[in-house]
Amino acid sequence: FADDTVKTGIQLAPASQRMTLDPGAHYKGTITLTNTGTTNISYLVSVSPYQVNDDYSYNFEKETKYTQISRWITLEETTGSINAGQVQILNYTVDVPLDAPGGSQYAAIFVTTTDVTGAIETVRADASPGIIILARINGETREEGKILSTNIPMFLLNPPATATVRVKNTGNVDEDVRTTIEVRNSLTGSVLYDNSADPEVNTLLPDTERTMTFVVNDIPRLGVLSFSITNEYIDDAQIKTATVIVCPLWFIAIIVLIILTIVFRILAKKRDDRRTRANSRNSTGSADKFNI
Question: Which of 77, 111, 193, 203 would staple 183 via disulfide (CB 3.0–4.6 Å)?
Fold first, then answer.
């Protein structure tokens, strides 16, 4: 019989560690490991590169010039065990080469645990828990990039309202994009959504392009909206506004039906008018012939 009271789980904290290092630096870092399960476990600790795919999903296998730090990290212990409810500190060091290039470097530290049945479970940084190392090496750095496009659909059949922003990082360090959105009801002027107090912040890694989608759910099912989106990226700032019409299919069907009804009545009236004129001409012609 399976014992439902046996649970395995670990947490690593913090979720990421950001650091600024000089070439030749020796850095000591720590990770807090917590066994949140109800049974003792053993584990393995390892380091991998950290990059992103074209859709900005995590990639822990892709090696680039920005993942060299994964080879500079040394783990104090690569194996261990932890009792249920216990907390441990995992130590690691980063030895930066003297000839390390300036710019950003990325790695991930993840844990592989063995549960009570002996099965292997992999807990990586794209799940919870996980540690992402984001380092910036002092030296020649380039903060470059631009906002490529902002797209706001002008017509919606149903909520939500969406906007997409495409940004490109052409530098050698990661940069944040700050996005502020305001949506108003054009008919009443009331504010439906405003995140200016807490803008959306997304990070772009060097030499990558990212498309971000923003969704606003709290809008009417029928109406006219004023949609404004502001993007700030490095020294670039763009504001785009658009009028968005929200019109469901049933309302379109009613409008089409009304238009067809009006057109049918106009055509029917013209047909009746032609018949009336034709009958009038026929009646006049017969009378003239009788008088003659």
Answer: 193
Residue 265, helix vs strand vs coil? helix
Which residue type sits at 39?
T
Residues 212-236 pLDDT 10s: 999 999 899 899 999 999 999 998 8
H helix or E strand, kind and range, residue 157: none
Report the C-alpha gap between 268 and 132 in whole angstroms. Answer: 73
Beta pairing partners, 217: none
225 CB burial (10 A radius; 0-12, 13-18, 19+): buried
Tell me how many degrees the CA angle 165-166-172 measures, rounded to the nearest 5: 130
- pLDDT tens string 158-187: 999 999 999 999 999 999 999 999 999 998
Q: Are 114 and 69 in contact (CB under 8 A)?
A: no
Give the helix/strand (H/E) hosting 153.
Answer: none
